[in-house]
Amino acid sequence: MVVLTDMEYRALEHLEQRERHLRRGVTLQRENDRVGEMFVLRSGRMMSSVLLDDGSRQILRIHSAGDLLAVSNLIYDNAPETITALSDCTVAPFERAALSALLVAHPRLAALILVYNQIERAALTDRLAALGRTSAKARVAAILIEMRNRARMLDKSVGDSFVLGLTQEEIGDATGLTAVHVNRMLRQLEDEGLIAREAGRVRFRDERALARSSNFVDRYEKLDLGWLPESRG
Amino acid sequence: MVVLTDMEYRALEHLEQRERHLRRGVTLQRENDRVGEMFVLRSGRMMSSVLLDDGSRQILRIHSAGDLLAVSNLIYDNAPETITALSDCTVAPFERAALSALLVAHPRLAALILVYNQIERAALTDRLAALGRTSAKARVAAILIEMRNRARMLDKSVGDSFVLGLTQEEIGDATGLTAVHVNRMLRQLEDEGLIAREAGRVRFRDERALARSSNFVDRYEKLDLGWLPESRG
DNA sequence: CGCGGGTTTGAGCCTACTCAACAGATGTGG
DNA sequence: CCACATCTGTTGAGTAGGCTCAAACCCGCG
């Protein structure tokens, strides 16, 4: 999508020097933890979530390889969100100072971070609209499509059938529903012939109808990056 | 909160050269419009929203003076959201290229934009959690507190009593409720002695209890900006 | 073989929605 | 200055989508 120069590439490499491996289920940081680092997710899938004081959980975002994690630690000393591994993962931690230096040395990378933020913002506002204004079925359909597209971004060979990698409870926490109701909505989508479920995999049988019933918009498409500043090296 | 240097200050002034005045109700941009500009909101209050295809509306964010508007136009040619004036407003438009130049010339301002993005992200995720996991009453309470705090940021003299400046329909579209139910929730908060309503104004009678019933967190507090890069001039 | 995590299904309930009517306030044109 | 339209807020009655509680099932795993 954007070609980095050698210098920029090396700057990123430098940022990601260290590496940490996480097993599925491990939490990288817990809400309100005193934190200072940020992370690049190098492989695997993670999620960020918050706990409300009635004990319920809201999943804010599902992250996959290449995402920046915990960027909000840049400005808050106490983490505003919990970050947990959904699969085995590797992350590369880096310090505020490193990011700060990067911004100064590589304005074009600074701009790309801004771009990244805006994509994420768009995705968040889509979810906001979904939670506020769409039915349970639409929300479940939307998360299915989003997960498939994510999978495909990392592996072009992914087609109609893919491994969801989320429990129904997790889908519920992401969509603001109960696990029980998620189950019923999946069944309904299946009964209507929109999807099929087979041993941990989901297959789209009528993607068109699925998209129609979910208001889904792919925010990684149709980006315009012509305005990016010149690179320095 | 952060002291700008003369150079930085002048760079921002330059960005905000032009000015445009908007009457209440006017839309600055409509979803899917072909756009290229971004804006600084100089005075007044605006909102960004999306329309779903069943005709319902979700308000994504309420903006007040000082906010950056339509930053997502940076990366999308077609606006992902509608932006409308909630009161008479003035905005200062600027181009992608201007922002791009700013990032190169003033890395510390680039960092501040990043900071701004993260605050906004935190606010969005709070709302996401509210829509997904809290009751109607809690959501209404939360928006009241948020609006009061916003008003106070611009005018330190604002205390328990303030002008809400939103119709019940707008509150509904922001919280994912119907106007009718918003009305009932306001009445309930009033009956319970948490608020009083008097001619367009809201007064907090028990702010502690209001905050308790709403999970509200003020994301503009407790920022740590010690890591910001040195300014250049 | 028993255990635990995840899934499935049923029954009944409650929160928030829909529809509808009305009251006030504001504005507009005649 | 009145008649009328429009927008916002208020209240009631009935409905429904999604929740709770509970039980059973499936499957991989120690």
From TrEMBL, chains A, B:
<keyword id="KW-0804">Transcription</keyword>
<keyword id="KW-0805">Transcription regulation</keyword>
<keyword id="KW-0238">DNA-binding</keyword>
<dbReference type="InterPro" id="IPR014710">
    <property type="entry name" value="RmlC-like_jellyroll"/>
</dbReference>
<dbReference type="InterPro" id="IPR036388">
    <property type="entry name" value="WH-like_DNA-bd_sf"/>
</dbReference>
<dbReference type="InterPro" id="IPR050397">
    <property type="entry name" value="Env_Response_Regulators"/>
</dbReference>
<dbReference type="InterPro" id="IPR018490">
    <property type="entry name" value="cNMP-bd_dom_sf"/>
</dbReference>
<dbReference type="GO" id="GO:0005829">
    <property type="term" value="C:cytosol"/>
</dbReference>
<dbReference type="Pfam" id="PF13545">
    <property type="entry name" value="HTH_Crp_2"/>
</dbReference>
<dbReference type="InterPro" id="IPR000595">
    <property type="entry name" value="cNMP-bd_dom"/>
</dbReference>
<dbReference type="GO" id="GO:0003677">
    <property type="term" value="F:DNA binding"/>
</dbReference>
<dbReference type="InterPro" id="IPR036390">
    <property type="entry name" value="WH_DNA-bd_sf"/>
</dbReference>
<dbReference type="InterPro" id="IPR012318">
    <property type="entry name" value="HTH_CRP"/>
</dbReference>
<dbReference type="Pfam" id="PF00027">
    <property type="entry name" value="cNMP_binding"/>
</dbReference>
<dbReference type="GO" id="GO:0003700">
    <property type="term" value="F:DNA-binding transcription factor activity"/>
</dbReference>
<feature type="domain" description="HTH crp-type">
    <location>
        <begin position="134"/>
        <end position="208"/>
    </location>
</feature>
<protein>
    <submittedName>
        <fullName>Crp/Fnr family transcriptional regulator</fullName>
    </submittedName>
</protein>
